């Protein structure tokens, strides 16, 4: 067993081409054979681009207000909300224009991400 205190995991700026705006990431579980778990922190207005994952993704909103969108709808999410994005579903997520937002992202280890727009 291992205890992970999110407050003790350093934030690193993530300049990955999937993001628009200021985003930091805290890797919470990078050494699991089954899962990848990370806290992703979006500053006001920051988001990611349209993308798909090869495996399911679960987002646990932990702070603020944000959006999660697929091709059919865009929903506002708040701290405490959970979103399940299925494998191959085109989507994006991020903060609103008035609030920062953080979520924990859970994916299957080895899942790949394909960015669909620039």
Can you characterise this structure?
This protein is mostly beta strands. It has a single domain (13-115), classed as Jelly Rolls. It is built from no helices and twelve strands. Strands 1, 3, 4, 7, 8, 9, 10 and 11 form an eight-stranded antiparallel sheet that branches. The protein has a two-stranded antiparallel sheet with strand order 2-5. Strands 6-12 form a two-stranded antiparallel sheet. Strand 7 and strand 8 (74-78) form a beta hairpin. It is globular, with a radius of gyration of 13 Å. The model has no long low-confidence stretch (mean pLDDT 96).
List keywords for this structure.
single chain, Jelly Rolls, 12 strands
Oligomer: single chain
Strand and helix order: EEEEEEEEEEEE
Count of individual helical segments: 0
Whole-number total of structural domains: 1
Percent of residues in β-strands: over 45%
Radius of gyration computed on alpha carbons = 13 Å
> Taking all residues together, what is the mean pLDDT?
96
Shape descriptor: globular
CATH class: Mainly Beta
Counting DSSP E segments of at least 2 residues, the number of strands comes to: 12
> What kind of sheet is the major sheet?
8 strands, antiparallel
Q: Roughly what percent helix?
A: under 10%
Give the CATH H-level superfamily: Jelly Rolls
Overall CATH architecture: Sandwich
Assign the CATH topology.
Jelly Rolls
**Cα end-to-end separation:** 41 Å
Low-confidence stretches: none
Look at the helices and sheets and give the structural class: mainly beta
